[in-house]
Amino acid sequence: MTSTALSPEPPATWRRYFGFSTDAKVIGIQYIVVAFFFFLVGGLLAMIIRGELITPASDLVDRTVYNGLYTMHGTIMLFLFIFPVLNGLNNLLIPTMIGAPDMAFPRLNTAAFWLVPVFGILLIASFFVPSGPATSGWWSYPPVSLQNPLGQLINGEFLWVLAVALSGVSSIMGAVNFVTTILRMRAPGMGFFRMPVFCWTALAAQSLQLIGLPALTGGAVMLLLDLSVGTSFYRPEGGGDPVLYQHFFWFYSHPAVYVIILPVFGIFSELFPVYSRKPLFGYVYVCLASFIIVGLGLIVWVHHMFPSGVTQWMRNLFMVTTMLIAVPTGVKVFAWLGTLWRGKIRLTTPMLFCLGGLFNFVFAGITGVMLATVPIDIHVSNTYFVVGHFHYVIYGAAVMGIFAAIYHWFPKFTGRMPYEGLGKLHFLLTFVGANLNFLPMHPLGLMGMPRRVSSYDPEFAFWNVLASLGAFLLGVSIIPFLLNMISSWARGPRAPHNPWSAIGLEWLLPSPPAEDNFGEHVPTVISRPYGYGSGEPLVEHQAEIERALTLQEANR
Amino acid sequence: MTSSTPRRPGPVALAALAVWIGLLVFISLWVADQSLRWLPVQASNAAPLVDGLFSFETGVGTFVFLGVISVMGWVMLVHRAEKYDESDADPIEGNTRLEVIWTAIPFVLVMAIAWYAIQVSTELGVLGPMEHIHLRDAGEQQGGYPGDRLPAEQVEVVARQWSWEFRYPAQNVSSTELHLELDRPITFRLVSEDVLHGFFIPAFRLKQDVIPGRAIDFSLTPTRLGRYRLRDSQFSGTWFAANQADVVVETAADHAAWLKQAAAAPLQSGLSVASDEYAEHQRNPRGGWPTVVPAPPPQVNVPGSSSLPHDA
Fold first, then answer.
1. Total-model pTM
2. Under the phi-then-psi rule, with left for phi > 0, alpha for psi from -120 to 50, and beta for the rest, what region is A342?
3. A118-160 tens-digit pLDDT
4. Residue A316 confidence (pLDDT) above 70
5. CA–CA separation, A296 vs B72, rounded Å?
6. In B, residues 34-53, which contact A (CB 8 Å cutoff)?
7. Which stretches does DSSP call E strand in B95-176?
């Protein structure tokens, strides 16, 4: 029993992070670091976008450049930041939380990861081809995306479609791995209703990937054929239907939002109990709500197309399904409030990010119901109201949840404690910056400012100046984060195995865990997660395992 | 060390809660009222309906948002762990009755909103455009209707990269400024020569994508005199942002006079900011990536302007 706990730390050579590794914990950190590299690239593009929009005229960059920048901003942030960073968390957390030594298919895992820099380089390379990068937005709606002014085979749009298709392949490989690992490799005694909610949400999100991604990939292949070999799937002059692409695209890309937000719900569900010192309120309902969201999430995609020419009955049907998503989502929000209620709240950095993320998410949920409402959507669709809404979801809730997760699990996987002061500064700048950046987009949209514009009428200037200032503040907010990560990893205080007194299998491993986690000695789970205040142990022989870990820490 | 008997709230606590909820209701009603000011002037018969729905949802949303935030604020103020208190809180695992209540309330709420929205949609009379979409026939494909084929009461809207052209078949007038008669229902036939565009007039609260290869009939009724902006709302390429036109709502007499004057005016190049910028670009290249060349400005009787003050 104790031999695992006493096994020596893995050799701490930083070089292993630069090579092919099959260790999920190495791959997880590789994913996260690569994702944040692209986060900085995408963020830099956002700074230029907001620089252009601080004045009404198109005066900072050429219009073609602006269109390329906003297209690449969206594409990079989604396919090269948020999906990879979440897959990084999946790699770190799923095996350690369920007591598996690694992912089910370690080499597939390596291949899935190494596709990310490959398609990342492909996408960035499109800045340097004569045509410039893709300029038709991350939706890449035909026919505008099929216009190829130079007529060259290798053009920005071509590289864009290729990168998106490869991203899909990488995500499918990842999804197969995550789903299999969760279904097949749980510790003895860990039935589904003893599984941490993060794993539930990861299972839900990765199932969505498996169901939805083929539609996007198929749609993208047809786009590539139309673009490169002259087929007419979407070309109206050849009898094709441009609206068909929108169905393929949104059949995946709406569920993609749930692929992003579900694991963040998982993070909230993990962290609120830890920092409230209470069990998760209504654990079973929270687990099941994830799968209700999966089911409903697959039948709402037409709400992106209300003004595209769909019949009234379809509009009404998809409005109702979209609104129903508020119900399982509400169950989760109330569960978190129930968890906080009469807890013993500790406002640590991860907790602040969770609370801030929840604040933003509730706001985004309300604007989401407005967007589901057909008559309101008709007015605000394709305006800045939508841009504001989804940045509240993606940045305000998802990215803040991801920051919470990074601060919370950083000690576990690096063996070092992050600095609280820098973390709180990071939170403050992020929370203020995000709200200052994204709140003004709502009045702009209501006033009728379309999204994706490189210039606008002067009446929109006031709110745009505010939004740009907020964006620059967000740009600054990343500095304390990077400082914190680099300095604490290099010379932060050594982390004990369980610095937050959290309950979970991952906290019964040394920090950082051995390469094969529990190895041969996987503990048997005997109770539900989140047993805060109950005094019940999570696993058999928990006291001995903890004593051995403490002893090991005292001797190092 | 943990007592499992739930505390019953006393009368003072209940009264305070009631006052607080009353306050939130008051604030929500006020915000719902304010929300009408966030929208442009109401210039079509659709606008009051859309705005009423928006105001209602803003009120409900404000109440929900403030309710959640109140709980978060309360726990952060009152349920903070004492310094050095390492102990856990009472292990409350859940409450089925509460779960049922907070599943039922949002369900009823969103279904009520959906029902209200369906009523508004029906009342708007914006019939699903699918019922009005027909594939363009060969004649239409070749660039518009001969004057006698489009129903006389309709206005044909031709979207291009990057200009808007409006044709009044009965008077044989074409213009790059849209003129409409006050309080008179009008049906547009929306066509695109190249890519997707969006026909969006914020003051009217209406929007419809214009789809190449289809002709879409789209109806509305302007209800307020003034000059408004029509904006392209579906990304259409390089000069997407500049693809705007003015919409003038005028009295019947003014409209008739305008049509008469326009019919007599000679054809000239219509408004196309894209063409102007592209020409400037050719004279003074300032970098950038290759672009689709703008379609030549349509030849129209009335070009209009892009710089007149507008109401919304």
1. 0.94
2. left
3. 999 999 999 999 999 999 999 999 999 999 999 999 999 999 9
4. yes
5. 28
6. 38-40, 46, 49-50, 53
7. 133-135, 154-160, 163-168, 173-175
- Pairwise CA distance, residues B226 & B251, whole Å: 10
Range 310-369 of A in CB contact (< 8 A) with B: 310-316, 319-320, 323-324, 326-327, 330-331, 333-335, 337-338, 340-347, 355, 358-359, 362-363, 366-367, 369
The CB density around residue B64, as the number of other CB atoms within 10 Å, is 22
CB proximity B98 to A under 8 Å: yes
Residue B264 to residue B277: CA distance in whole angstroms: 29
Nearest residue in chain B measured CA to CA from A135 = B237
Strands B226-232 vs B197-201: parallel, antiparallel or unpaired: antiparallel
Q: Grade residue A185 by pLDDT with cuts at 50, 70 and 90.
A: very high
Average pLDDT over residues B52-60: 97
Q: Give pLDDT tens digits for B6-49.
A: 567 789 999 999 999 999 999 999 999 999 999 999 999 999 99
Residue A435: CB atoms within 10 A of its CB come to 19
**Helix residue ranges per DSSP H, A344-501:** 349-372, 374-380, 384-391, 400-414, 420-438, 441-447, 461-491
Nearest chain A alpha carbon to B114? A320
* Rounded-to-integer distance, Cα B168 and Cα B185, Å: 15
A413 by Cβ neighbours in 10 Å (0-12 / 13-18 / 19+) ranks as: buried
pLDDT, tens digit (0-9, with 9 covering 90-100), for B200-242: 999 999 999 999 988 988 889 999 999 999 999 999 999 999 9
Are the CB atoms for A498 and A512 separated by under 8 Å? no
- The pLDDT tens digits of the residues spanning B171-190 come to 999 999 999 999 999 999 99
Of how many residues is chain A composed?
556
Give B-chain residues touching A61 at CB under 8 angstroms: 288
Interface of A with B in 375-394 (CB under 8 A): 375-376, 378-379, 381-383
Distant-in-sequence, close-in-space partners of A364: CB < 8 Å, separation ≥ 6: A389, A390, A392, A393, A396, A397
Nearest by CB to A63, from B39, B99, B238: name it. B238
Average pLDDT score over residue span A489-518: 95
Using CB atoms within 10 Å of the CB of residue B82, give its burial: 0 to 12 exposed, 13 to 18 middle, 19+ buried. exposed
The pLDDT tens digits of the residues spanning A194-219 come to 999 999 999 999 999 999 999 999 99
Q: Is B72 on the interface with A (CB under 8 A)?
A: yes
Provide φ and ψ at B216, rounded to 5°: -115, 125
Say what the ipTM of the complex is: 0.93
Nearest to B2 among A323, A374, A533 (CB): A533
